[in-house]
Structures are given as C-alpha cells and as structure tokens.
Specification:
There is one protein chain. The chain contains four helices and seven strands. By secondary structure, it is an alpha+beta fold. It has two domains: 106 residues, no CATH class; 70 residues. The strands form three sheets. A three-stranded antiparallel β-sheet has the order 1-6-7. β3 and β4 form a beta hairpin. The chain is elongated.
Length: 194
Amino acid sequence: MKYFSFLCVVIIISGAVSCSKPDGDTGSGDGVLKTGQVTFSGGYETDPQDHGRPVVLIGSALGVSPEVFRDAFSGVTPAKVGPPSPAHARANKKVLMDALSKHGVTHERLDEVSNFYRYRRESGELWKHTPATATAIIEDGKVTGFNITNAGAGYTTAPTIKVAGYDDLEVKVNIEFSTDFSTNGRVASLTIVE
C-alpha cells in the first residue's frame, strides 16, 4: 500500500464557539458544544484547475501523483451536454490508459477508482467520504493532545478543527493519502503547536 503525506497547518482564530454541528460532529444532540469537544468542518476543497474533481484522492487511489493524473486527464474531452456517448467514453478512456498504464494502472482499477469518486456536484453531492472524529486530552484545564477516534477518509485538504472553549488553539493536521479507499485522505495526526 502506497502512502503520501502532506502537512497542513490549521490556525484556529479567536471567536465565538459555533453551536451548529459541523460535518462529523458527535455532539450531544442539542446543538450545544461541550467544553473540550472537538469538531471538524471542511477539508473537501479542490484545486481550481481540477474543476471540482478530487484529483489528489483519485491520483493517490491509482498510485500516481496528482500531477501525473492531471497530465493524463488533460487529453480527455468531456461531453458538452449530458453523459458521453459510448464511443466518446471509449476514446476518453483510451487517452487516460495510454498515459496511466505506464504507471501500472489497469483498466479495472481506473474503472473502480472513477466509480468510487464519481459524484454530481451540480446536485450538491460530495464524493464518498467519512468524517473524522477526535477527543481532546485535557489536563489541568489545558488541551495537551488528541485521541483520533475515527481518522475519516476522503479529505482533500486539512479540515478546520475547533475545540470548544479553546478558541486560540493552533493545531497541525497531517493528512495522509493511500491507494486504499478506506484510508485515502485520512487525518493521520493532530498536533498542538505551542
């Protein structure tokens, strides 16, 4: 299994604690965050050049860098209206396979990855993902670390992390990518910056 790590820094800016429940929040159910409760939000941004495609996830799942996948995809001609015809789809797949097969990508794996990360952005959908969850370790009223209870999957960028009652906390978030759908784009570590 191949892993790719990227270090992202998230700085929590001082402000009021949100009472809404962000994606992945495991709050009490009444909308009020308890002191020390960790919430994750965001982390699903894509590079503007990718037009909404989660290229970092697709490339990693295929075992290639985002740049290799972007280069391969640059020869694809998307259908202008509706789904592509079968002939158009075959031509696009040939373009992708001509570029990706030299990196060990098979037809079957390309289909599997494409189908897994396919989504309809125009309908407000998001690709398959699992929100991360964590608990803060608090000693003598100070957050000293985190226990990641679910590393999540499907993050393309570092999510925003808030710890209720600790608005000025600065945290480094390490996101890890792999060829395994269940761990691709997971939160690998949360580290407090002193």
